[in-house]
Design a protein that fits this description.
It is a single chain. By secondary structure, the protein is mainly beta. Helix content is 15%, strand content 37%. The protein is built from 2 helices and 8 strands, in the order ββαβββαβββ.
Length: 116
């Protein structure tokens, strides 16, 4: 899935969790543009941490395997995925390492982020 040019591989960890031995997975092999699917990295769509006022948590890994902090286009895609599949309400909160973002479905999905 892509958002305005950023293309990531998304993994739904809400329905099923990844094996702890593979978390965090290395996106490098699959993200390679010539030997893999090709992407800017990997985004895991996870349940929120306990005590955090959010409906979904986003974990982002860059193509080189480093942990990403924030990607506005990535959180938009996470919101679109979760809302369209009925995993969250049409107005929900999404958590990444730096922000809690609120998503609301109008004619398009709109995102507003505030530092946590």
């Amino acid at each position: 899935m892509h958002g305005l040019g950023n293309d990531y591989i998304y993994v739904d960890c809400l329905s099923q969790s990844l094996d702890g031995s593979t978390c965090p997975p290395s996106p490098a092999p699959i993200s390679h543009r010539h030997r893999g699917v090709g992407s800017d990295g990997l985004i895991l769509i996870c349940p929120p941490d306990s005590g955090v006022d959010a409906d979904v948590r986003m974990e982002m890994y860059n193509a080189d395997g480093s942990r990403g902090e924030m990607c506005g286009n990535g959180i938009r895609c996470v919101a679109k995925y979760a809302i369209e599949r009925g995993l969250v309400n049409p107005q929900s909160a999404f958590r990444n390492p730096q922000f809690v973002s609120e998503a609301k479905v109008c004619q398009r999905i709109r995102i507003r982020s505030e530092p946590s």
